[in-house]
Amino acid sequence: MRILAVDDDPSILELLDKVLDAFGYKDVVTARSGREAIEILSRPNEAFDCLLLDVQMPQMNGITLCEEVRKLPEHTYTPIIMVTAMVQKEYIDEAFGVGATDYVTKPFEFSDLKQRLSDAYRMAAERRAAIEVLEAEADFELCFDNSPDVRLSDPQCFGELPGFIGLAEFENYVIQLSTMHSKAAKLVAVKCTGAEQIYKTSTVSEFRSAMTLAGTAVLSANQEGRKVATYWGNGVFLVIYDNQVNLRVDQLGAPLPEALKDISGDATSGRPFGFQVSEEVILKAKTKMEALFLIDKAVEMAEMSEGRAASIG
Fold it and tell me: Among 137-151, 163-177, 233-247, which is the least confidently predicted range?
């Protein structure tokens, strides 16, 4: 795996180089600034499998650098891990908001960094493969019944929707908020109850269009505060709100059908759209596993919340 490490502190770069070499990563390139990193990434045939970025750097900080890297087509899915001493929630929010894959705080455990690198690389490879399958299926407009590689349970990335990030990034974000900033945010799951029927009777592009509409409705149903969302699979969306947002389940659930009507026009005609909304789950955990359990808890509540369903179509 080829890695680009960016930090304005030469001692940190030297440490990273030695640590990565000990992990077996022999091909490591370093940069002392964001501008130098962009120059390296812009060179022809200069490909990297993972980027490690510091946050606090002069001229161009790591957040801006991450945002600029994501504008490069060849690095749309390249894992970007922030390695920084900045633990404040605002930096974590901004990093994931501009496309960071993960967030590691200094001083870091070597074994933890090694696992994060492995997870990030595997995730990027899986996402590239999934995108290729979706694009191939959409080109031929095949039905899902004939597409064993595309499942209803598969997560999908709706990066074109403002506020949406991939599921793996979302899980890492939940872990950071739950363990480092306990009770600073809350999680809600929203299930589109018509997803299974649409999946069975639609092409890849039709199903994705329907879920895009549903995702847009989920985000637009409540206009208050900052929101980060992802698509979990099985028609379930996950949304994180800052804890100061005065959110009630009925406030989110009631506007969903109207929001869908406003954005869909005739696109949902005949489609059995409905929404089930979980109770809010406060993000508070001591461990990674406890944090991920909070996601499962929200999904389970959404799937069981038929009494709070709102329908359309």
Answer: 137-151
Contact 155, 233 (CB under 8 A): yes
Report the CATH superfamily, name and number, of domain 141-311. Answer: Reverse transcriptase/Diguanylate cyclase domain (3.30.70.270)
Residue 70: strand, helix, or coil: coil
Listed range (110-114, 118-122, 303-307) with the worst mean pLDDT = 303-307
* Torsions phi, psi for 240 (to 5 deg): -105, 130
Q: Are 165 and 228 in contact (CB under 8 A)?
A: yes
**Contact indicator for 171, 292 with CB cutoff of 8 Å:** yes
The beta strand positions in 234-291, using DSSP E, are 236-242, 274-277, 281-282
CA distance 212 to 231: 10
Spatial CB neighbours of 210, under 8 Å, sequence gap ≥ 6: 195, 198, 202, 267, 268, 271, 273
